[in-house]
Amino acid sequence: MLGAAGDDVVLFDVRNKYETRIGRFARRDAEGHDEVDLVDPETRFFHETPDFLAKEDNLQRFENKRIMMYCTGGVRCERTSALLKEMLPENAEVYQLSGGIQRYLEAYPSGGFFEGAMHVFDRRGCIAGQDMVAADVAEQLPKATVLGRCSRC
Questions:
Q1: 112 φψ region: left (φ > 0), alpha (ψ -120 to 50), beta (else)
Q2: pTM for the model
Q3: Average pLDDT, integer, range 44-63
């Protein structure tokens, strides 16, 4: 869906701020500019997301748009999609990445539309698509672009 997205699509990253700084989805033109609007609520904790959506300016960014949301494993998307469906008109189109970034990178270890790394909540800290496949396969993949560094990784 992201490959064919137009002005009627908005990406909603429902992860926390430190996670969004090290990796994200994007579709770029030949010059490297974003072609799809990204909404990053810049929250420190998930419980701040409803307050973000309660602000009229923030909610307006989703009106009359197809909303494509993503998170690490899908749990925050489930909760946020339910909240958005309550707050937006009945005909709002709200989609979530099934299984989150985790499952996406398993399916597309080269990264696909995902740039950078994903924060995971275990001893690994941050991982990219190459980290999710066997070493001999990973050697043949392009290295992940570094968008930022996690203070914990």
A1: left
A2: 0.78
A3: 94
